[in-house]
Amino acid sequence: MTHTPAVPSLQSLCIFCGSQTGNNPEFRIAAETVGRALAANGTALVFGGGRVGLMGAAADAALAGGGTVIGVIPEFLKNKELAHTGASEMIVVPDMHTRKRVMFERSDAFCILPGGVGTLEEMFEIVTWRQLHRHNKPIIILNTAGYWSHLMGLLDQIIAADFAHKGHDTLVTVVERAEDVVQTVEAELANPKPPVRFDV
User: Fold this and answer.
1) Closest by alpha carbon to 138, among 198, 187, 103?
2) Which CATH number does the domain housing residue 152 bear?
3) What does pTM read for this prediction?
């Protein structure tokens, strides 16, 4: 009798992260840890398609672990030779808006690693869509070395100032260790959070 391996609930995870590696070695280690964990879990990594920075580090680690890596990159970035040539699948799109839509459609959940304003823009859009009940996919913020602590304080301030309702903090889940990302997402997929209210 052959044993069929269990299919993970988390079949694809999108990461938003920097096209730089940053000045703390822990950032790269965290990206590589997430990539390896996805490969070990049989979960495809969906990312911005670049071979540089933290996105490249996560993709390289996933591929080294035998995982599937799906890149989504706009034509203008591919032409600058930033596209990851080793990706299992590379989807070339016409613009940044299409890139985000395709990444959303191909993913069961999202993880935000350290990054810059582009990473913030991607994160806030996907959080806003969840707030507006366009999806209820898990969103994990990986707070490596406290990188996102000020951001979490800002979100608390937004709630305290009544620009968001109490309960909006559940739009995201914060984890401190890269090793906890996959199990945290799997747990939320098994027990989804209720949608938050957004009354005006």
Assistant:
1) 187
2) 3.40.50.450
3) 0.93
